[in-house]
Design a protein that fits this description.
With about 425 residues, the chain is mainly α. It has one domain. The chain is about 80% helix and about 0% strand. It contains 21 helices and no strands. Helix 6 runs antiparallel to helix 11, helix 8 runs antiparallel to helix 19 and helix 9 packs across helix 18. It is globular.
Amino acid sequence: MGTFLIIAMLVLFAFSVPIATSIGIAAALAIYIQGDIPVMVIAQRMFASLDSFPLMAIPFFILAGTLMEVGGISKRLVNLANSMVGHMTGGLAAVAVVTSMFFAAISGSSAATTAAIGSILIPAMVSKGYRRDFAGAVQAASGEIGVIIPPSIPMILYAVVVGVSVGDMFIAGIIPGILIGLSLILTVYIISKKRGYKGSEKATWGERFKAFKEAFLALLMPFIILGGIYGGIFTPTEAAAVAVGYSFLIGTFVYKEIKWKAVLDLFSKSSVTMSIIMIIIANAGVFGWILTREQIPQLVAQWLTSMTQSPIIFLLLVNIFLMIVGMFFETSASIIILAPILTPIAVALGINPVHFGMIMIVNLAMGMVTPPLGVNLFVACQIGGLKLEQISRALIPFLFTLIIDVLLISYIPKISMILLDLAK
Protein backbone atom coordinates (compact mmCIF):
# COMPACT_ATOMS: atom_id res chain seq x y z
CA MET A 1 0.00 0.00 0.00
CA GLY A 2 2.88 2.34 0.74
CA THR A 3 4.29 2.01 -2.78
CA PHE A 4 0.87 2.64 -4.35
CA LEU A 5 0.38 5.67 -2.08
CA ILE A 6 3.60 7.36 -3.19
CA ILE A 7 3.16 6.49 -6.88
CA ALA A 8 -0.43 7.79 -6.87
CA MET A 9 0.67 11.05 -5.28
CA LEU A 10 3.47 11.57 -7.83
CA VAL A 11 1.15 10.80 -10.74
CA LEU A 12 -1.35 13.36 -9.47
CA PHE A 13 1.45 15.90 -9.08
CA ALA A 14 2.48 15.21 -12.69
CA PHE A 15 -1.05 16.13 -13.81
CA SER A 16 -0.82 19.44 -11.87
CA VAL A 17 -3.43 18.44 -9.30
CA PRO A 18 -3.11 20.77 -6.27
CA ILE A 19 -0.84 19.43 -3.54
CA ALA A 20 -3.52 19.13 -0.84
CA THR A 21 -5.87 17.35 -3.22
CA SER A 22 -3.13 15.04 -4.51
CA ILE A 23 -2.17 13.96 -1.00
CA GLY A 24 -5.80 13.40 0.01
CA ILE A 25 -6.82 11.48 -3.12
CA ALA A 26 -3.70 9.29 -2.96
CA ALA A 27 -4.40 8.44 0.68
CA ALA A 28 -8.10 7.73 0.04
CA LEU A 29 -7.31 5.48 -2.94
CA ALA A 30 -4.71 3.56 -0.95
CA ILE A 31 -7.19 2.94 1.87
CA TYR A 32 -9.92 1.92 -0.59
CA ILE A 33 -7.64 -0.53 -2.42
CA GLN A 34 -6.39 -2.03 0.84
CA GLY A 35 -9.98 -3.01 1.60
CA ASP A 36 -9.61 -3.89 5.27
CA ILE A 37 -9.53 -0.30 6.58
CA PRO A 38 -12.87 1.48 7.23
CA VAL A 39 -13.33 4.61 5.11
CA MET A 40 -14.30 6.41 8.32
CA VAL A 41 -10.59 6.35 9.23
CA ILE A 42 -9.99 9.12 6.68
CA ALA A 43 -12.24 11.56 8.53
CA GLN A 44 -10.90 10.45 11.91
CA ARG A 45 -7.26 10.95 10.91
CA MET A 46 -8.01 14.31 9.29
CA PHE A 47 -9.68 15.52 12.49
CA ALA A 48 -6.89 14.13 14.67
CA SER A 49 -4.29 15.96 12.55
CA LEU A 50 -6.00 19.29 13.21
CA ASP A 51 -6.84 18.62 16.86
CA SER A 52 -3.75 20.38 18.20
CA PHE A 53 -3.64 23.51 20.36
CA PRO A 54 -0.30 24.78 18.96
CA LEU A 55 -1.74 24.65 15.42
CA MET A 56 -4.14 27.42 16.42
CA ALA A 57 -1.16 29.77 16.22
CA ILE A 58 -1.05 29.43 12.43
CA PRO A 59 -4.32 31.24 11.54
CA PHE A 60 -3.56 33.91 14.11
CA PHE A 61 -0.08 34.61 12.70
CA ILE A 62 -1.49 34.63 9.16
CA LEU A 63 -4.11 37.19 10.19
CA ALA A 64 -1.53 39.27 12.07
CA GLY A 65 0.71 39.33 8.99
CA THR A 66 -2.19 40.45 6.80
CA LEU A 67 -3.14 43.21 9.24
CA MET A 68 0.46 44.39 9.40
CA GLU A 69 0.79 44.29 5.62
CA VAL A 70 -2.16 46.63 5.00
CA GLY A 71 -1.76 48.64 8.18
CA GLY A 72 1.09 50.83 6.95
CA ILE A 73 3.84 48.70 8.44
CA SER A 74 5.59 47.88 5.15
CA LYS A 75 6.34 51.42 4.07
CA ARG A 76 7.51 52.44 7.55
CA LEU A 77 9.91 49.51 7.65
CA VAL A 78 11.13 50.42 4.15
CA ASN A 79 11.78 53.99 5.30
CA LEU A 80 13.72 52.76 8.33
CA ALA A 81 15.82 50.35 6.28
CA ASN A 82 16.47 53.04 3.68
CA SER A 83 17.75 55.42 6.34
CA MET A 84 20.13 52.71 7.55
CA VAL A 85 21.57 51.16 4.36
CA GLY A 86 20.09 53.12 1.44
CA HIS A 87 23.34 55.04 0.92
CA MET A 88 25.54 51.99 0.33
CA THR A 89 26.36 50.53 -3.08
CA GLY A 90 23.19 48.82 -4.33
CA GLY A 91 21.30 50.70 -1.65
CA LEU A 92 17.73 49.91 -2.66
CA ALA A 93 18.53 46.21 -3.07
CA ALA A 94 20.09 46.18 0.40
CA VAL A 95 16.98 47.96 1.68
CA ALA A 96 14.89 45.09 0.26
CA VAL A 97 16.91 42.57 2.28
CA VAL A 98 16.89 44.55 5.52
CA THR A 99 13.19 45.38 5.25
CA SER A 100 12.42 41.70 4.61
CA MET A 101 14.29 40.86 7.81
CA PHE A 102 12.19 43.37 9.73
CA PHE A 103 8.93 42.19 8.16
CA ALA A 104 9.85 38.54 8.71
CA ALA A 105 9.77 39.22 12.43
CA ILE A 106 6.12 40.19 11.99
CA SER A 107 4.55 38.09 9.25
CA GLY A 108 5.82 34.50 9.64
CA SER A 109 5.25 33.97 5.92
CA SER A 110 7.68 33.99 3.00
CA ALA A 111 5.11 34.86 0.33
CA ALA A 112 3.61 37.65 2.47
CA THR A 113 7.07 39.16 3.01
CA THR A 114 7.84 39.04 -0.71
CA ALA A 115 4.49 40.60 -1.64
CA ALA A 116 4.42 43.30 1.03
CA ILE A 117 7.97 44.54 0.48
CA GLY A 118 8.28 43.71 -3.22
CA SER A 119 5.22 45.76 -4.16
CA ILE A 120 7.09 48.83 -2.91
CA LEU A 121 10.73 48.09 -3.71
CA ILE A 122 10.72 46.19 -7.02
CA PRO A 123 9.17 49.16 -8.90
CA ALA A 124 11.44 51.54 -6.95
CA MET A 125 14.58 49.59 -7.95
CA VAL A 126 13.51 49.48 -11.61
CA SER A 127 12.86 53.23 -11.63
CA LYS A 128 16.38 53.82 -10.28
CA GLY A 129 18.00 51.85 -13.11
CA TYR A 130 18.33 48.40 -11.54
CA ARG A 131 17.76 45.55 -13.96
CA ARG A 132 14.23 44.24 -13.59
CA ASP A 133 15.31 40.60 -13.24
CA PHE A 134 17.84 41.55 -10.56
CA ALA A 135 15.21 43.50 -8.61
CA GLY A 136 12.83 40.56 -8.69
CA ALA A 137 15.56 38.06 -7.73
CA VAL A 138 16.68 40.16 -4.75
CA GLN A 139 13.16 40.37 -3.37
CA ALA A 140 12.35 36.71 -3.99
CA ALA A 141 15.54 35.58 -2.22
CA SER A 142 14.99 38.04 0.63
CA GLY A 143 11.42 36.85 1.12
CA GLU A 144 12.78 33.45 2.17
CA ILE A 145 13.81 35.03 5.46
CA GLY A 146 10.09 35.36 6.23
CA VAL A 147 9.95 31.74 7.43
CA ILE A 148 13.34 31.69 9.17
CA ILE A 149 13.27 34.70 11.48
CA PRO A 150 10.49 34.04 14.06
CA PRO A 151 7.55 33.93 14.20
CA SER A 152 7.45 31.28 11.48
CA ILE A 153 4.57 29.09 10.36
CA PRO A 154 6.85 26.21 9.21
CA MET A 155 8.54 26.27 12.63
CA ILE A 156 5.17 25.80 14.33
CA LEU A 157 4.36 22.89 12.02
CA TYR A 158 7.71 21.21 12.65
CA ALA A 159 7.39 21.66 16.41
CA VAL A 160 3.89 20.15 16.45
CA VAL A 161 4.81 17.20 14.23
CA VAL A 162 8.06 16.33 16.01
CA GLY A 163 7.07 17.28 19.55
CA VAL A 164 9.60 20.01 20.33
CA SER A 165 8.92 23.43 21.81
CA VAL A 166 7.61 26.12 19.45
CA GLY A 167 9.42 28.70 21.57
CA ASP A 168 12.71 26.82 21.19
CA MET A 169 12.28 26.77 17.42
CA PHE A 170 11.60 30.51 17.41
CA ILE A 171 14.75 31.25 19.39
CA ALA A 172 16.81 28.93 17.18
CA GLY A 173 15.76 30.81 14.05
CA ILE A 174 17.05 34.24 15.03
CA ILE A 175 20.77 33.90 14.23
CA PRO A 176 20.28 31.77 11.07
CA GLY A 177 17.88 34.43 9.79
CA ILE A 178 20.39 37.20 10.49
CA LEU A 179 23.17 35.15 8.87
CA ILE A 180 21.15 34.68 5.69
CA GLY A 181 20.20 38.36 5.63
CA LEU A 182 23.81 39.55 5.97
CA SER A 183 25.03 37.10 3.33
CA LEU A 184 22.37 38.34 0.89
CA ILE A 185 23.41 41.94 1.55
CA LEU A 186 27.03 40.97 0.75
CA THR A 187 25.88 39.32 -2.48
CA VAL A 188 23.87 42.42 -3.39
CA TYR A 189 26.91 44.62 -2.72
CA ILE A 190 29.24 42.54 -4.93
CA ILE A 191 26.79 42.46 -7.86
CA SER A 192 25.90 46.14 -7.48
CA LYS A 193 29.59 47.10 -7.39
CA LYS A 194 30.13 45.38 -10.75
CA ARG A 195 27.03 46.92 -12.34
CA GLY A 196 27.43 50.40 -10.89
CA TYR A 197 24.23 50.50 -8.84
CA LYS A 198 24.75 53.44 -6.50
CA GLY A 199 22.99 54.29 -3.28
CA SER A 200 20.95 57.32 -2.35
CA GLU A 201 22.07 60.29 -0.32
CA LYS A 202 23.11 59.30 3.19
CA ALA A 203 20.40 59.99 5.76
CA THR A 204 21.13 62.29 8.67
CA TRP A 205 20.90 61.00 12.21
CA GLY A 206 17.77 63.11 12.60
CA GLU A 207 16.15 61.40 9.61
CA ARG A 208 17.16 58.01 10.96
CA PHE A 209 15.68 58.77 14.35
CA LYS A 210 12.43 59.93 12.72
CA ALA A 211 12.23 56.73 10.66
CA PHE A 212 12.95 54.62 13.74
CA LYS A 213 10.30 56.44 15.75
CA GLU A 214 7.68 55.87 13.04
CA ALA A 215 8.55 52.15 12.80
CA PHE A 216 9.08 51.61 16.54
CA LEU A 217 5.67 50.09 17.25
CA ALA A 218 6.13 47.59 14.42
CA LEU A 219 9.61 46.64 15.63
CA LEU A 220 8.23 46.15 19.14
CA MET A 221 6.00 43.28 18.09
CA PRO A 222 8.69 40.54 17.90
CA PHE A 223 9.93 41.51 21.36
CA ILE A 224 6.40 41.25 22.73
CA ILE A 225 5.95 37.81 21.16
CA LEU A 226 9.28 36.26 22.16
CA GLY A 227 9.49 38.12 25.46
CA GLY A 228 6.00 36.98 26.42
CA ILE A 229 6.76 33.36 25.53
CA TYR A 230 10.03 33.15 27.41
CA GLY A 231 8.80 35.32 30.25
CA GLY A 232 6.05 32.79 30.90
CA ILE A 233 3.33 35.35 30.25
CA PHE A 234 1.68 33.41 27.44
CA THR A 235 2.15 30.32 25.27
CA PRO A 236 3.20 30.55 21.59
CA THR A 237 -0.43 30.03 20.58
CA GLU A 238 -1.61 32.79 22.89
CA ALA A 239 1.25 34.96 21.59
CA ALA A 240 -0.20 34.63 18.09
CA ALA A 241 -3.56 35.92 19.35
CA VAL A 242 -1.76 38.81 21.07
CA ALA A 243 -0.05 39.59 17.75
CA VAL A 244 -3.44 39.86 16.04
CA GLY A 245 -4.80 42.24 18.67
CA TYR A 246 -1.63 44.32 18.67
CA SER A 247 -1.42 44.60 14.86
CA PHE A 248 -5.12 45.51 14.62
CA LEU A 249 -4.84 48.25 17.22
CA ILE A 250 -1.68 49.73 15.70
CA GLY A 251 -2.93 49.60 12.10
CA THR A 252 -6.40 50.93 12.95
CA PHE A 253 -5.95 53.47 15.74
CA VAL A 254 -2.30 54.56 15.56
CA TYR A 255 -1.34 54.43 11.88
CA LYS A 256 -5.02 54.69 10.87
CA GLU A 257 -4.50 52.81 7.61
CA ILE A 258 -6.85 49.89 8.30
CA LYS A 259 -10.35 51.08 7.47
CA TRP A 260 -13.35 49.49 9.14
CA LYS A 261 -15.01 48.73 5.81
CA ALA A 262 -11.91 46.74 4.77
CA VAL A 263 -11.75 44.56 7.89
CA LEU A 264 -14.11 41.92 6.51
CA ASP A 265 -11.98 41.61 3.35
CA LEU A 266 -8.84 41.21 5.48
CA PHE A 267 -10.42 38.39 7.45
CA SER A 268 -11.61 36.78 4.22
CA LYS A 269 -8.13 36.97 2.65
CA SER A 270 -6.53 35.45 5.74
CA SER A 271 -9.18 32.73 5.94
CA VAL A 272 -8.41 31.55 2.41
CA THR A 273 -4.68 31.29 3.15
CA MET A 274 -5.34 29.57 6.47
CA SER A 275 -7.80 27.12 4.92
CA ILE A 276 -5.29 26.03 2.28
CA ILE A 277 -2.70 25.27 4.95
CA MET A 278 -5.18 23.44 7.17
CA ILE A 279 -6.46 21.30 4.28
CA ILE A 280 -2.86 20.32 3.51
CA ILE A 281 -2.28 19.45 7.18
CA ALA A 282 -5.47 17.37 7.37
CA ASN A 283 -4.76 15.41 4.19
CA ALA A 284 -1.10 15.02 5.06
CA GLY A 285 -2.21 13.57 8.41
CA VAL A 286 -3.98 10.70 6.61
CA PHE A 287 -1.01 10.31 4.28
CA GLY A 288 1.42 10.18 7.20
CA TRP A 289 -0.73 7.70 9.10
CA ILE A 290 -0.62 5.29 6.17
CA LEU A 291 3.16 5.70 5.86
CA THR A 292 3.52 4.93 9.57
CA ARG A 293 1.16 1.95 9.35
CA GLU A 294 3.21 0.55 6.48
CA GLN A 295 6.43 1.22 8.46
CA ILE A 296 7.86 3.42 5.69
CA PRO A 297 9.75 5.64 8.20
CA GLN A 298 11.48 2.57 9.64
CA LEU A 299 12.40 1.34 6.15
CA VAL A 300 13.84 4.74 5.21
CA ALA A 301 15.74 4.84 8.49
CA GLN A 302 17.20 1.38 7.86
CA TRP A 303 18.20 2.38 4.34
CA LEU A 304 19.91 5.59 5.44
CA THR A 305 21.70 4.02 8.39
CA SER A 306 22.86 1.16 6.15
CA MET A 307 24.48 3.75 3.89
CA THR A 308 26.21 5.68 6.65
CA GLN A 309 26.51 6.02 10.41
CA SER A 310 28.27 9.37 10.07
CA PRO A 311 26.24 12.47 11.02
CA ILE A 312 28.31 14.47 8.51
CA ILE A 313 27.41 12.24 5.56
CA PHE A 314 23.82 11.93 6.77
CA LEU A 315 23.40 15.72 6.83
CA LEU A 316 24.93 16.00 3.37
CA LEU A 317 22.46 13.41 2.01
CA VAL A 318 19.55 15.09 3.80
CA ASN A 319 20.52 18.52 2.48
CA ILE A 320 20.65 17.27 -1.10
CA PHE A 321 17.34 15.44 -0.67
CA LEU A 322 15.55 18.41 0.92
CA MET A 323 16.84 20.84 -1.71
CA ILE A 324 15.32 18.63 -4.40
CA VAL A 325 12.07 18.17 -2.44
CA GLY A 326 11.81 21.92 -1.89
CA MET A 327 11.91 22.52 -5.64
CA PHE A 328 8.76 20.49 -6.23
CA PHE A 329 6.73 20.33 -3.01
CA GLU A 330 5.00 22.86 -0.80
CA THR A 331 6.89 23.57 2.44
CA SER A 332 4.10 22.77 4.91
CA ALA A 333 3.29 19.43 3.32
CA SER A 334 7.00 18.54 3.10
CA ILE A 335 7.50 19.19 6.82
CA ILE A 336 4.43 17.23 7.86
CA ILE A 337 5.38 14.22 5.73
CA LEU A 338 9.18 14.18 6.09
CA ALA A 339 9.86 15.48 9.61
CA PRO A 340 8.49 12.35 11.38
CA ILE A 341 10.62 10.20 9.06
CA LEU A 342 13.94 12.06 9.14
CA THR A 343 14.05 13.56 12.64
CA PRO A 344 14.23 10.25 14.57
CA ILE A 345 17.17 9.20 12.41
CA ALA A 346 18.90 12.52 13.08
CA VAL A 347 18.33 12.20 16.82
CA ALA A 348 19.70 8.63 16.76
CA LEU A 349 22.87 10.03 15.17
CA GLY A 350 23.23 12.63 17.94
CA ILE A 351 21.74 15.64 16.15
CA ASN A 352 19.56 17.91 18.29
CA PRO A 353 15.95 17.91 16.97
CA VAL A 354 15.72 21.71 17.17
CA HIS A 355 18.95 22.06 15.16
CA PHE A 356 17.67 19.52 12.65
CA GLY A 357 14.41 21.45 12.42
CA MET A 358 16.34 24.56 11.38
CA ILE A 359 18.20 22.52 8.76
CA MET A 360 14.89 21.28 7.34
CA ILE A 361 13.24 24.70 7.34
CA VAL A 362 16.19 26.56 5.78
CA ASN A 363 16.49 23.90 3.08
CA LEU A 364 12.79 23.89 2.27
CA ALA A 365 12.75 27.69 2.34
CA MET A 366 15.19 27.58 -0.56
CA GLY A 367 12.45 25.77 -2.46
CA MET A 368 10.42 28.97 -2.28
CA VAL A 369 12.98 30.66 -4.55
CA THR A 370 13.84 27.78 -6.90
CA PRO A 371 11.97 26.89 -10.08
CA PRO A 372 9.72 25.32 -11.11
CA LEU A 373 7.36 25.78 -8.12
CA GLY A 374 8.95 28.52 -5.99
CA VAL A 375 6.08 30.58 -4.60
CA ASN A 376 8.30 33.66 -4.07
CA LEU A 377 9.28 33.57 -7.74
CA PHE A 378 5.66 33.74 -8.85
CA VAL A 379 4.94 36.65 -6.49
CA ALA A 380 8.05 38.57 -7.62
CA CYS A 381 7.32 37.81 -11.30
CA GLN A 382 3.79 39.12 -10.95
CA ILE A 383 4.94 42.33 -9.27
CA GLY A 384 7.90 42.91 -11.59
CA GLY A 385 6.29 41.84 -14.86
CA LEU A 386 8.89 39.08 -15.31
CA LYS A 387 8.95 35.64 -16.88
CA LEU A 388 10.12 32.69 -14.81
CA GLU A 389 13.20 32.08 -16.96
CA GLN A 390 14.29 35.71 -16.58
CA ILE A 391 14.19 35.73 -12.80
CA SER A 392 15.67 32.23 -12.61
CA ARG A 393 18.88 33.34 -14.32
CA ALA A 394 19.20 36.34 -12.03
CA LEU A 395 18.74 34.10 -8.98
CA ILE A 396 21.85 31.99 -9.57
CA PRO A 397 24.29 34.02 -7.40
CA PHE A 398 21.70 34.26 -4.61
CA LEU A 399 21.08 30.51 -4.68
CA PHE A 400 24.83 29.93 -4.42
CA THR A 401 24.87 32.16 -1.33
CA LEU A 402 21.89 30.35 0.20
CA ILE A 403 23.53 26.95 -0.34
CA ILE A 404 26.61 28.15 1.58
CA ASP A 405 24.30 29.35 4.38
CA VAL A 406 22.57 25.96 4.50
CA LEU A 407 25.91 24.18 4.86
CA LEU A 408 27.05 26.55 7.61
CA ILE A 409 23.82 26.08 9.55
CA SER A 410 24.02 22.30 9.06
CA TYR A 411 27.59 21.80 10.20
CA ILE A 412 27.91 24.53 12.83
CA PRO A 413 25.12 23.72 15.33
CA LYS A 414 25.98 26.73 17.49
CA ILE A 415 24.51 29.04 14.85
CA SER A 416 21.08 27.65 15.70
CA MET A 417 21.62 26.60 19.31
CA ILE A 418 23.71 29.33 20.96
CA LEU A 419 20.80 31.61 21.89
CA LEU A 420 18.77 28.63 23.06
CA ASP A 421 21.66 27.46 25.24
CA LEU A 422 22.00 30.96 26.71
CA ALA A 423 18.24 31.19 27.32
CA LYS A 424 18.34 27.98 29.33
